Amino acid sequence: MSELGGEISRNRRHILRGGTSLLFAAALPAGSASAKSVSPGRMSGINVADLGAVGDGYTDDTEAFETAYALAAARVRDGVGRLVIEIPAGDFLITRPHALLNGVAPPRPANGLRFAGVGKNMTTLVFRPATGPGSYLCRNEDSWSNLSFERMQFRSATPGASFFSSYSTGQAQDYRFSECEWLGEWEYGLALDGTDTNSEMRWEACTVAGSYRKAFLYSGLSGRKQASPNAQDQFLNYWFTDMKVEYEWGNFLEFPYGGSIDCRGGSYIITGKRPKSTPEYGTTSTFFRFPVSQHHDSVQRFHAQDIRFEVRDPDVRIIDCVWSSGTVHFNDCDDTGIAFKDFSAEVRPHRYTVGPRGPLIRYDSCQLVGRHEYRTVHKEETLPTVVRYDMCLLRNHSRTDFAVTDATGPARFVQFVDCIDTEPTGGTTPRATPGAPVVTPGPTPSRP
Question: What is the pLDDT of residues 58-92, one digit of tens each?
């Protein structure tokens, strides 16, 4: 260990107990750039290379990252974080959980912590704990808000490890990921838990690759400290903008307890299949999975816009939603990119359960492959119109057999307005519907 590393190791516990800025400065060599940047009351940076991180992919850099976080916790003043953790180009091996961020009380709640790399293909954090499930690279338990991760790549080198555990009763919120990438086999990307908040999170120009035993973002982990798991609420405002979502298998977003989610722009592809069937998921991988119908005082709103999906396999689902209310809206999306495949006409990539309060489902100016499946919890003749397709292209079927239900007779709750579909005989000649709303009149096949 370097002289700097030894000095920091001796002082780390004192720093975590709230050591002074003089102690903070003493942990760095007097001539280093990072030491020169340190002064009380203003934002400064610390580079993990100055703390002994090597970044060669073989040397264990865990201690340097643990120390960087300890210094950041010590630099909180008046509830505001004052330190940027800088990570240069390289492959940095981390072998202990929570080494990148270990937000547990103490310290006191703080606002503002930033991790800055130099590029998502240049700065790579390789997480290799001894065991996978239950091991998280980061955790935040009501300690930090306004967390930022910029221009870096995260790779799981232990199958089933997880990236981030976030528990909140009101403090953990406002996370931002810019130009980040995830690779490897994870159990969870981010697992959210708690009774309140865990909200206001944004992903911009990020790449979600790898694979996920559960989901990249799983909102509503366990119901910890609640009398009932359904007491979780306020999973609000998750924005995904200009994303490249191209992973091998698993779910992208799974929200058992409601939520408000916006996905805008980008390409979404599931490239493979689950390696084995599981009781919860079977062999299916789903981009947007909302598996619980009722929630405690929680919003249910999902919006997807300007996204190109690829349905490469019958076991791929774009959405599987059983919400009993709320709204689902697809606007100017296209999932017909490989509709020429032999299986494409019979895929059912959009699946819903609907009832008298919805959810209200709308597709505007979308191009759609296969059929959409609707399950009902009431007699269909008692349901109002809760589904509408407006100016959409139905690639493989006419509107008379595009909406598949779990009962016989017309799907009276589905309307088509100014859509283009195929001939009812199965031909491919486009046919436009009249301008007035049209109720789906045809029979519906039984579920497979």
Answer: 999 999 999 999 999 999 988 889 899 999 999 99
DSSP assignment letter at 17: T
Q: Where are the alpha helices (DSSP H) in 29-116?
A: 33-37, 62-74
Q: Taking a C-beta distance cutoff of 8 angstroms, is the pair 167, 140 a contact? A: yes
Residue type, 182: W
Among 132, 142, 74, residue whose Cα is nearest residue 104: 142
Q: In the numeric block, which tokens belong to residue 405? A: 């239900």
State phi, psi for 15 to the nearest 5 degrees.
-60, -45
List strand residue ranges (DSSP E) for 248-345, in order: 251-254, 259-270, 285-290, 300-305, 308-310, 316-321, 327-331
- DSSP string of 222-266? S-TT-SSGGG------EEEEEEEEEESSSEEEE-TT-EEEEEEEE
pLDDT(11) > 50: no
* CA dist list (Å): 2 to 5, 63, 125, 275: 5, 12, 21, 44
Residue with tokens 């799907």: 411
pLDDT digits (tens, 9 = 90+) for 252-279: 999 888 889 999 999 999 999 999 999 9
Q: How many CB atoms lie within 10 A of CB 406?
A: 14
What's the predicted TM-score (pTM) here?
0.87
| Beta-bridge partners for 76 | none
CB atoms within 10 A of CB 25: 15
Q: What percent of the chain has pLDDT over 70?
A: 78
User: Which is more confident, 245 or 108?
Assistant: 245
Neighbours of 284 (CB within 10 A): 21
Q: What is the DSSP letter of 358?
A: B
Task: Write out pLDDT tens, residues 133-145.
Answer: 999 999 999 899 9
Name the phi and psi angles at 8, rounded to 5.
-65, -40
**pLDDT tier at 232 (50, 70, 90 boundaries)?**
low
335: tokens are 């999932």
Dist CA 289 CA 32 (whole Å)? 49
